[in-house]
Every structure is written in structure tokens, then in C-alpha cells.
What we know:
The protein has one domain (2-111): 3-Layer(aba) Sandwich (Aminopeptidase), CATH 3.40.630. It has 3 helices and 6 strands. The protein has helices at residues 2-8, 54-67, 87-92, and strands spanning 12-19, 22-32, 37-45, 74-79, 96-102, 105-111. The strands form 2 sheets. It has a 3-stranded antiparallel sheet with strand order 1-2-3, sandwiched between helices. Strand 5 and strand 6 form a beta hairpin. 20% of the residues are buried.
Amino acid sequence: xxxxxxxFEPRAWFRGVFADExxxxxxxxxxxxxxxxxxxxxxxxxxxxxxxxxxRGALELVVDRVRRLPGATELLSSYVPGDDGPWNFYLRSGFxxxxxxxxxxxxxxxxx
Length: 112
């Protein structure tokens, strides 16, 4: 579904996350260089590949990309709170909570 969305959203940038030849995840950004707003829209690592460093490595590459985009000062994302949710991963990666909530998701921010 995310790949289909990306093909119809002109601001979408997306890539597969691979360990050698094995697909382990997917990442998609919303890049709006006119407004200088960058949002980590999808970030998924398959459950059986979590905890092996693939997420951290992929996120580092994404952050490096965003830093090179026009006027990038932050990377936004969001997550759904829950016991098995990704908040601790994002927290360890330097994200902080904002006061924004979109539906059931909390918006988070990484200063660049």
C-alpha cells in the first residue's frame, strides 16, 4: 500500500531496506522543499529483523539524506503509543516528543 501511495504523492521518496540481498524493511519520506518540511512517513523493519541494527543503519542514512535537503533543520515523524511501539527506538535515536497529536499518533522531532 505504501508503494502505491508513493507513486501518487509527488513529495514521496521511498526505498527498501536490505541486508545484503534480503529485504528487511521499507522507508518513505515526505519531502516538501518549498516549505522546507521533511517527515518520516513510513519506517518499517520486519519483526524478525528487528534488534539487529538494520533500523538504526537505515535511519542514519535517511537523516544524512534529509540534512542535505534545502533548509532542513528538523525531521518529523509520528508513532502510535503502545507497549511494543517504536518510541524507545526513536528516543535512543535522538527524537523528542512534540505537543502535537494527529489522530492516534504522537508527532516527534529530530533536530538536525
